[in-house]
What does this fold into?
Amino acid sequence: MIGRIPRRPRPRSRSDRGCHPASSADASRDRRSADGRDRLPVVALVGRPNVGKSTLFARISGAWAESVNAPGTTVGTEWRRVSSRAGDAWVVDLPGTLSLHDRPTSGAPAWEMLLDSAPDAILVVTDAADLARHLPLALACRDLGLPIVVAANLADEAARQGIEVDRGRLSQLLVAPVIETSGRTGIGVDRALEAVVRRAQQRRAFRAHTASPRGTLPAPVYGPALELDLERTGRRLAAATSLGAAALDLSGAGAALHRGLVSPRGAATIELSEALEPIRWRVAGEWVGQVERRRGVRTGAERARETAGERLARLSTQAWPGLPMFAGLVIATLLVMMAIGGLLSAALSAAWAATASPVLAAVVPALVPQPVLARTLLWALDGGVLAVLSVGVPYVLTFYVLLAILEDSGYLTTAAVLTDRLFNALGLPGRAAIPLIAATGCNVPAIYGTRVLATRRERLLASFLATLTPCSARSAVIVGALAPFVGPGAALAAFGVVALLTLGGGLAANAMIPGRQPPLVLELAPLRRPVPALVAARAWHRFRAFVTAAAPFMLVGSLVLGFLYESNLVWPLATFTDPVVRNWLGLPSVAGLALVFAFLRKELALQLLVSLAVVQFGPQAANLARFMSPAQLFTYAVVVSVSVPCVATFAALRAEHGWRPALAMSAGSLALAIGAGGLIARVLGAA
It folds into this structure.
């Protein structure tokens, strides 16, 4: 007899505005009832990696979550309230999984995460061009006894490949609606949402008006003998344990499949769900032969496009020419960010200096007669805002657009394969490639992304490497400090030095925490042409979140630093940092203060220096070269990029690993930054 299995506490996931991580069925119900919405049905979104589930979720909810188009990067659940023609509902996006008994994260299996969300219906997202590999997951969801709707997603790509799906026949076989969708273009998304919300409402109505707590049995597809055994096992479990079908409100077969330890023939005690996988794959193969049709004639242009795309995808995953292509793409991305960001920075700075700055310089002293207070306010209202416009807006926005293009094209998965090979050759954890790619956008989701790794050693090592990886804010500091004043070559060289320091730090950590990493195994995403609307929406979502979070820190930081500077309190504070900043790193004292404030937000390290330049030399002198030499700027950019992570990253480290590992990683990165910075300063003659 199987007793109640206590549900393990699960770490809370980082979520966007309006998203809520779900840790259990009770928690999800509490969340829905907290604001009077407990009567709304819940729809779970389930699918394999790279099937476009997150894009479909964004289309359904109208909001773009922070994500990376690579398998294993979604480690929690995202909740959104949505509206459809059938009514309102909660939609929960679950991590991509190959089957319900797999573990998409290092925690619970997929079926437990699914049942913890307490769904009333499931929207199973499949690949219309590859149903043979996606239908087994749909069958597993169907076996739970919950209503399902199948979204045959990527229908536009299937059409280009000459693949047609007989949705009517597949719907008959699954006894569930099948709707062709394309999250990238929006085709069929509203119909799929309406269908699954309607089925969820029907199930809730059935539960409210029947004395039986059990769900409806799924239609038999596995053969009479096995179906009879499933039903008997389900009845036995429902009567014998409080966590059987009655508690979960599933069919008897569903409880047997995912709580029972019974073989199909009753001769052994094995996990029944896992034992049924070969049967599901066989059934899926038989069904695909009935529902899939391929057009025999295609135009020469269609064949040429498909051949070119397949050839590019194949070549991009090979060491040659994949690695040179990857290196060229990285360099091109940095150069484009420098070029576009530099133009935007110059234009915004000139516009601000010509319009707003003179007005503020005249109005603020007139309204605030106290000179020290007036100059302090100008640090925030003039220098602080100008720093945001000259650094945060141009470089970060450009980076997010470029990152969204790479993400929407599916190339990030290819990059993960290529970097995995490098990591294995260096003795670094190969599977950490995916979180590290996410770290180029922001270190925080990368830290949470390490949950996909199997052992604590892997997660610690990957988290340390993520803190050393330049995020968009640190990349903006490198580009903004070097490209306009020293040249693009210096910025590229700084990125190269940071990469070497990151690899060196990873090697040192790998030596201190011995162990062997298995090779990375993941499902490659096909290369696709980015959709401009999706790229713009994803980039704008991230940029808006960045500005919302960064602007208050920037203004408050400028205000505090301005007060310290104008009241002459900054120099006593600088004496604490001068032994390291001036004597070892060869930097001016104010640079040390900016480094301290950079703990709040990394981009503050450059923006506060810009504020200093504006206050000391006037609005036209937002030019760091006025008080720092090229060698000092290079040293400063490297130290900022490698030193202590920002407060948000530190909080993520503490939440994931505890205080001691978080402090140890921060101390390690600080020691690496100071040590390397001093050596660089002496080599370049800055010290």
